[in-house]
């Protein structure tokens, strides 16, 4: 059983387009995250979200928006895609409280041309 | 200042030997957590080990152990009896504070196990 899943695995699109990446977890976690990993493998948290609050990394452009229809899903919407948005995007989840040990999805490689 | 520093971009180790991957952190919080993740060439992020700031004993998980030196703010990962499958990127990470909102990753260390 897949714990944290993301779709699509690969996404190739043109500048200016709007795209979404879906994330689902079946671990019963109540906190979910989005990370961006750049070409140098640097991982940076973009958002953390539980049913009480959304925390946005202040460096994330407002073209990026998370949307959570329920506790098991946190989708990432990106408007007006730019070349610099090309990266691998990881979804993760954890329990709220305790260690906050995170479990990651397989990643979505986004290429903007 | 960097929250997590990994000073070894690349490391090599002979199969069956032990290797230490360095990690130092910077926080003024009393409550924090330290993590190590493995990222093989296939790309997924695999959780390895966790150490809480109040834990007095070093964490161990199978062949992985975390050498936690609080005063020096270091959290080195020790892999014993290296295997070829251990070749991967290794990331040190920190959860700052008592919520899940502040997570920081280091730049990673690429480990290559030589047969």
> What share of the residues of chain A lie within helices?
under 10%
Helical run tally of chain A = 0
Order of helices and strands of chain A: EEEEEEEEEEE
Structural class of chain A: mainly beta
Give the biggest beta sheet of chain A: 7 strands, mixed
Structure description:
- By secondary structure, chain A is an all-beta fold.
- Chain A is built from no helices and eleven strands.
- In chain A, the strands form two sheets. In chain A, strands 2, 4, 5, 6, 9, 10 and 11 form a seven-stranded mixed β-sheet that branches. A four-stranded antiparallel β-sheet of chain A has the order 1-3-8-7, with no helix packed on it.
- In chain A, strand 9 and strand 10 (103-104) form a beta hairpin.
- Chain A is globular, with a radius of gyration of 13 Å.
- The model of chain A has no long low-confidence stretch (mean pLDDT 91).
- In chain B, 0% of the residues lie in helices and 51% in strands.
- Chain B is built from no helices and twelve strands.
- In chain B, strands 2, 5, 6, 10, 11 and 12 form a six-stranded mixed β-sheet that branches. A four-stranded antiparallel β-sheet of chain B has the order 3-9-8-7, with no helix packed on it. A two-stranded antiparallel ribbon of chain B has the order 1-4.
- Chains A and B meet through strand 5, strand 9 and strand 10 of A and strand 5, strand 6, strand 10 and strand 11 of B.
């Amino acid at each position: 059983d897949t714990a944290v899943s993301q779709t699509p695995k690969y996404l190739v699109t043109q500048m200016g387009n709007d795209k979404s990446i879906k994330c689902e977890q079946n671990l019963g976690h109540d906190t979910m995250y989005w990370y961006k990993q750049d070409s140098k493998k640097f991982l940076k948290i973009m958002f953390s979200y539980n049913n009480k609050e959304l925390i946005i990394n202040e460096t994330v452009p407002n073209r990026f928006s998370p949307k959570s229809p329920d506790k098991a899903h946190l989708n990432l919407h990106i408007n007006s895609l730019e070349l610099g948005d090309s990266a691998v995007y990881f979804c993760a989840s954890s329990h709220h409280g305790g260690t906050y040990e995170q479990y990651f999805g397989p990643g979505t490689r986004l290429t903007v041309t | 200042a960097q929250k997590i520093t990994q000073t070894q971009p690349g490391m090599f180790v002979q199969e069956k030997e032990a290797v230490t991957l360095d990690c130092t952190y910077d926080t003024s919080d009393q409550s924090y957590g330290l993590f190590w993740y493995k990222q093989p060439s296939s790309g997924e992020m695999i959780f390895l080990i966790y150490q809480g700031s109040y834990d007095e004993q070093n964490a161990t998980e199978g062949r992985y152990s975390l050498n936690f030196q609080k005063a020096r703010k270091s959290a080195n990962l020790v892999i014993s009896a290296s295997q070829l499958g251990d070749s991967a990127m290794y990331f040190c990470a920190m959860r700052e504070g008592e919520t899940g909102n502040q997570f920081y990753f280091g730049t990673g260390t690429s480990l290559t196990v030589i047969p």
